[in-house]
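Q: Give me the 3D complex with 6-O-phosphono-beta-D-fructofuranose.
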Amino acid sequence: MNTILEAIQKSAIRIKHAIDVKDIGYSQEQNSSGETQLQLDIQSDLIIEEELSRIETVHTIASEEKEHPMVLNEKGHYYIAFDPLDGSSLVDVNLSVGSIFGIYEGEFSGEKMVAACYVVYGPRVELVFAQYGKVSLYLLQNGVFEYVKEIQLNVKGKIMAPGGTQQCWPAYHKQMIDSFFARGYRLRYSGGMVPDLHQILLKGGGLFSYPGASDKPEGKLRMLFEVFPFAFIFETAGGKAVDGKGDVLEKTPRHVHDTSPCFFGSNDEVNEVLSVYAAH
Ligand code: F6P
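A: Here is the predicted complex, encoded as structure tokens.
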């Protein structure tokens, strides 16, 4: 597992460099050599693929940027699903973005997840890694990820990050979110899952929601690349992650890119989601 964490760290340093290089961004234009410039998210995908392909224990990778999983080593036992650059459209407006990794043993299913990790590329580069009941925060300093502290959620928080298009939300979802705000919760939503959830984790708690809605009945966020890794991290940090009915990690996607409604947060807020949703 250490070699996987090291590969993620190397990938993060290379992706950060790619983000920083001025003339890459989203351009579809040709560069001076006449080659089509790679979009940043495709470039990030290739970086991670290259770093993980050096590790013998990695059997298969699945990426948000690839249609199908890719077998790297038949003898390996880790299955790694990743979103190379989540929220990449935010790079153009200079907001934070991130990479997300779910590490599974034997197959891609919530119950087979053994570790999860994400990297936030913001004013600083930070990495959060969850394994063996502990969530650790690292900070990139002088080219090295230094351990900072363990992350633990409070039982109740103050932040509300409500995803999706409000006019398409079910009425009971809207009432629930309104009622949180009526009790003093503060809106914190950038549109990047990684920084939005990172803020909730580091500020002690709250609720991030991306419900099923009339425009997206199964939500927007993909189980393998986005939902399961954050569910694992929130649960390890003492919080909860549900799909509205129960633990989201108990779900098994039928297809690699399947989505699920999702709610991540501290215990009190997620319990309230469960009771509101149970009544409908
Ligand atoms: O998966 C892409 C993503 O950008 C997430 O990072 C983010 O949480 C979500 O979409 C935002 O979606 P919306 O703009 O519909 O709230």
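A quick observation: Residues 29-37 have pLDDT under 50 and may be disordered.
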